[in-house]
Specification:
Blueprint: H1 45-52, E1 55-56, E2 60-61, H2 79-91, E3 96-99, H3 105-116, E4 123-127, H4 130-142, E5 149-153, H5 156-165, E6 170-175, H6 181-188, E7 195-203, H7 221-228, E8 234-240, E9 243-248
Parallel strand pairs: 3-4, 3-6, 4-5, 6-7
Antiparallel strand pairs: 1-2, 7-9, 8-9
Helix pairs in contact: 2-3, 6-7
Length: 253
Amino acid sequence: MHAAPRRPSLTLFAHPESFLRLEEAGSTIPPYRPTYDFPGPYVDAEHERLGTGPLRDGYLVDRRTGGILGWPIQGWLRREDALKLYEMAYFAGGDILELGSFHGLSTSLLALAERSGPRPKGIETVDLSPRSVAMTRLNLLRQGLLHRVRVHRGDALPFVRTRRAEGRRYAMVFVDHSHAYGPVHDVCRELHALVEPGGFCLFHDFNDPRNCDPTDVDHGVHQAVTGGLDPDAFEFYGIYGVVAMYRRSEGRS
């Protein structure tokens, strides 16, 4: 049995030494390490299942809607990615935004973490593909999680700009709507006004060797993040698997 997890201390652990330059992308897969101070290696039982459960192809999380014999949720999350997403959603101090849901694998982890976490928070996800939106809703429904997530269909950049104009702020933003330079760079330019001070943004496929290939126009997340995020507003916090995480500075509005 797991004891009820305590609230984390005010101490946050950054891992700046895990940064990989563009030419190093994919050369190593940094392990999951906690950002928050909590007892034991896992936040709770669900977090432990992510850390010890079955893998697809030896490294991708194999999550199903009804246990080991349930419907598989399509997606590409390394174990390290999934552990970090769950931890950050569990302890997030406010609302969560996901850009790009595909079939709801990462969305499910965000919703599970919110359900178990120490405080309620809203979760929104947006995807341009009608099929992805439909599958996300279906997979959340099968897990009893649909009521915890507002699922939208739309383009990430207009959605972000609309939320910014409305004055919305998020404690956590997970960016996975594209692997290409332009769409990710454009969103990065908006995040300083969307992420609340002290909040976090996470970028999937930042640590992907395809970013290094100048002939691959479909991949440029590393360049988009390092060139698009305001360096005065965001601090690099670590790479975990292929996910890079940055924290919004608390002193600049």
